[in-house]
User: Fold these one by one.
Assistant:
Number 1:
Amino acid sequence: MEFNANCSVVPDSTPTDAGVAGPGVLLSFIVTNCLSLLLSAIIILLGLRKSTSAPIARKLLLSFSDQQILTGIGIQSVGLAKMKTMVPYHFFIIWLLSLLSTATNLSTLLALVNDFKRDWVLRWLRQFLMLVNLFLGILSGIFILQSVMKNLEPRLPIACVWTVESRGHSSNAALAIAGTIAVIAGQVIIFIGSTWYLHYRQHPRWIKSVQVVGLLMLIASGIGATVRVVMESQAFGTPPESVKLVGLGEKDWSFGQLVPLLLLMLPVMSTVEIARGEVRMPPSRVDDDTRPLFDGELEFQPNPLMDSQGSLFRK
């Protein structure tokens, strides 16, 4: 493990990092963000019509949001921990994925704010995760901003932004700097507004307007981050030529790329279990292995396609 970034020698090429920019990792963030925004829109729309509380959609959205904010915090932590070896290209992709994570979390907050208000543990847990995500997002954004301002050599580690001299400004430096500053400032403003929104006890009439406008802004943010990820990554687009990636490792579909997508099925399975009702437990407590689990006749709900004897076809 390297503890000091080597900023004096520019490498000839950059190794690929499928753990950060592989197709499965990118798709897991993109798909989760799309599904969360869709579920949030459904819940908010049903709330405007006051037709149903949509309990299944609410549980599924909460599961996706919990998974996304934890993975967002995790991937940003990995990026900052590897900043002495990670190039700006991979660090920028991590930052874009964190924006998708933030959009997912905020859309969930817009749609399920009353659920969080009913339970102070869930409310403050959500507040803590939002604070950690904000801190990591701002810290990562500062590194990105500094690399753009100094026009850092693309093949040097991102940590070198604090030691190397500026190489002047690139052709799109002004636009990139303005966009990065706007995103960082927006994260702070949105965090303050979402904190007030989360802890405000009353239910004003204009709250529905806030939900609709906020959701439209988050959809735009999610689309923008998704487009940049697709265009910049080797997995789906074309990375900058100056990075000089070696090989096509970020295009390969390995087991490590399938796992993040398979984990997306967990919230769906939990939702099916919720829809079918709670799992039935024995009425009495079992003290040891010598006592039977059921003192009486075993209660069993048969498959409607089978008969009482367990045969596949009814007689």
Number 2:
Amino acid sequence: MSISDSTVELKLLADPTRARILSLILDSSGGRRLVGSLAAELGLRQPTVSYHVKALLAEGLLRRDPEGRQVWYSIPPDHVDRIAEMLQGKRPVPVTDAVLRRIAADLTTRFAGTFGPETVDRYVRECRTLLAERAGAARHLPSLTAQFAAERLSALAKEGLPPAGRVPEVLFVCVQNAGRSQLAAGILRHLAGDRVRVRTAGSAPADAVRSVIVTALDEIGVSLGGEFPKPLTDEVVRAADVVVTMGCGDACPVYPGRRYLDWDLDDPVGLPLPQVRGIRNDIEARVRELLASLVGDPGNPLANQ
């Protein structure tokens, strides 16, 4: 598919009626609908729906399948995944009370003996509220809510553990939690494995990790590992042995007994990949020094790109 084809599709899907028509067809049990049924569900006249259907047909986003006196409309099989992906951002996944109870029940099982159901439920609902404030999180809000709540509960559980034999924890904090902190966290996880627990947060988190950051990590063999921007919360700071801040000012609370580092790094927002590589390499050098101070083993250098 060419860039121009993609642009046409985006323009078509920007029309709420056309996007809704495709959504209804995607969600139908047989993957196809009649114009009459679409009109009834949309509350529109059939000629109006037919007009939008013809526009989608003209761009190949719909297929026309006559059966006797009826004409069914479906999405061509080779377009289904792409259209579903494009529509997903327009259709926030609902997080009903039943979904929240399910998440809380699962996490209660996971943290059995550490936290009671009431505590887990409170954290789950608070995490859902915090993430729902960011438009980008709506796309996978149920799973991100579960992941965010699990991280916060894990950090909270650490407070009661004795220092001896505990895996050191590092928290990377930047403004959007979509660039510098994700680069640092990805590289440290890659080098340290299970020897260090790594967390990230942002003072004003973005909707998603920037694609150039994913590319900069991927080209040196480092995975983002399902990370996503998340707000800074008190328990992750208290759980950290080392807190590394990157341009977030005084947003991070200070607790005694923690090691605080402030790394003066350029912000990769809006920068091309060659400049982001330079920031990545600077971060990698700092991460190796930090890892050596924590476990005494800097590892083998990754080849600079």
